[in-house]
Design brief:
542 residues; five-stranded antiparallel beta sheet; disordered C terminus; alpha+beta; single chain; Alpha-Beta Plaits
């Protein structure tokens, strides 16, 4: 167990070291001078103390070269117990400025062109003198052994406190993870948070565990940052670095805090907008649900198109709410946010051409009322019952228990035959045809066909079946029997049973059906033998 803890603790320490190093590299103390700053001036910084900024050229010497010379001259000031610093203005040739003298020795000078806007030559010199005094005081304190010893003592104490804090964080991390594991074991299977039939509780616990790990690592990184800034502030040589690191983290905290405070009114506006949109969506859903259920009648919407209309209107409401709330989203005016928006818009525009055609096809199908779920239809070569009219495709369940997905874009160019739409009152009319020779009286053929229809269980009694003669061909007459059935999906079963009964009726009457074609009339009538044999059962299985 101890070996495992060491292995798990190793990435934490590596992360702390890398995070502290990243903070130091990113801090203004160790960062390189900005190229834009070199064009406007060169700073002179010693031990984290800003002495002055040089902005003007002196003969052929650039501000950066002057800054390097001034830094060397300041560091060459002899160590003394007291320092008398004064400013002496003067002019040399075409240059005017002032000299900084330390203990009556001229150390460096600055020009009138180095003075920033809003300051005079004298006030800028006073700032330089104050900064130089601060650096000389720190350099003098660095030479005192008791200052270094006190710094080491406080650094050791801070290190012990930091190590104790990290140890407490590590123990707290292990305790919290054990608690989460126990919560996961007791919650899964008992408490469930379902969305679209999926239990989200295990994933929520995983998310909570990841967030806790991230928060603990962030807290450990903050402790490391505070520790190193405190240690650096204990020594005069590194006090400036520590002060700048402290100012850096304080600036980050202030910026984040001010950003959060300034974003609160906009966040409240976003919440209000989506809250109002949610109320409007709830009202629209309630209205269209009543229309779908037939409890509310409207001259504009009906039950068949209410569901699709509800979806379209709800989508438009949310899109409109998002458009209104967009300017109030924090960071919406940043270049990064704009870049993400452009990228998402490009993806949608490139990939939505086919989707838009499918969606429009589905809407056209719905609003044209071509069919609805439960209808028995024939689309192209597919025949079956409509199970789902989706946004992108329509699903049909065939008589062979197959599910066929027809893209909505295909529906726009295909002919659709709906067997159910007009059959809800008088049923669906189906027909079958036989061809009988001219030697058989047509009245007998009519009677035989109607007798077969009357014996078929799936054929309705009303409206009554009837027979029409569709053609007088060379060797036979074509008779078509039309009957009505209740369930369109039983069309093939009804025709199968009807064909069996027609064969039995014509065989019992010794009437030959002239299909397939005969070249010549046979000597004897072609009739099927009885099956099963007479006396062993009915001639037609029920």
């Amino acid at each position: 167990m101890a070996t495992r803890s060491k292995r798990m603790a190793r990435p934490l320490w590596l992360w702390l070291i890398s995070s502290v190093f990243s903070f130091l590299i990113a801090s203004p103390v160790f960062s390189q001078t900005d190229p834009a700053l070199l064009q406007t001036g060169a700073e002179v910084n010693l031990w984290g103390v800003h002495i002055l900024t040089l902005r003007a050229d002196y003969n052929d010497v650039t501000p950066a070269q002057r800054a390097a010379i001034v830094e060397r001259q300041i560091q060459s000031i002899p160590l003394r117990g007291e320092y008398r610093i004064e400013r002496v203005t003067g002019t040399e040739g075409r240059y005017s400025g002032a000299w900084i003298r330390v203990n009556d020795a001229r150390v460096f000078g600055y020009l009138a062109g180095d003075v920033p806007d809003g300051m005079t030559l004298e006030s800028y010199g006073d700032d330089i003198i104050a900064n130089l005094q601060e650096w000389l005081a720190r350099r003098h304190a660095q030479q005192r052994p008791q200052v270094v010893l006190y710094g080491l003592l406080f650094s050791v104490l801070a290190t012990l406190v930091f190590a104790g804090g990290i140890a407490l964080l590590w123990r707290g991390r292990r305790h919290l993870l054990r608690k989460l594991d126990a919560l996961s074991a007791t919650t899964v299977g008992h408490k469930q948070v379902k969305l679209a039939g999926i239990d989200l509780m295990p994933f929520l616990i995983m998310l909570l565990s990841g967030l806790m790990r991230l928060m603990l690592l962030a807290l450990a990184g903050l402790l490391a940052y505070l520790w190193i800034t405190f240690v650096l502030r204990q020594f005069p040589y590194t006090r400036g670095v520590g002060e700048q690191l402290t100012a850096h983290i304080l600036a980050v905290v202030v910026n984040v805090g001010s950003g959060i405070l300034s974003a609160i009114p906009d966040l409240i506006m976003v919440v209000v907008i989506f809250w109002l949109a949610n109320i409007l969506v709830a009202v629209l859903k309630a209205i269209f649900l009543r229309i779908e259920q037939g409890r509310l009648r409207s001259y504009v919407f009906d039950a068949e198109t209410a569901k699709a209309t509800r979806r379209v209107i709800v989508l438009l409401v949310w899109i409109f709410a998002a458009i209104i709330a967009y300017p109030y989203i924090p960071g919406s005016d940043t270049e990064a946010f704009k870049g993400v928006s452009v990228f998402l818009g490009l993806m949608v525009s490139l990939g939505s051409a086919g989707i838009v055609s499918q969606v429009l096809g589905g809407l056209i199908v719905v609003y044209s009322r071509a069919f609805q779920p439960g209808d028995f239809v024939k689309i192209a070569e597919h025949e079956g019952t409509v199970s789902v009219v989706g946004v992108l495709s329509t699903k049909i369940k065939t008589l062979r228990n197959e599910e066929v997905s027809v893209p909505n874009a295909v529906l726009l160019g295909a002919s659709t035959l709906n067997y159910s739409k007009l059959s809800r009152g008088d049923g669906l009319i189906i027909s079958t045809a036989v061809t009988i020779g001219y030697d058989t009286p047509w009245r007998q053929v009519h009677e035989l066909l109607l007798n077969a229809a009357s014996r078929c269980e799936k054929v309705r009694k009303e409206p009554k079946p009837f027979v029409i003669q569709t053609a007088l061909n060379d060797w036979y007459v074509e008779y078509r029997l039309l009957v009505s059935i209740d369930v369109p999906a039983h069309k093939l079963l009804a025709l199968s049973e009807l064909h069996q009964l027609i064969q039995d009726e014509f065989a019992a009457a010794h009437v030959q059906i002239m299909s397939p074609h005969f070249v010549a009339q046979p000597d004897n009538t072609v009739l099927p033998p009885s099956w099963p044999p007479v006396g062993q059962g009915d001639t037609l299985p029920r």
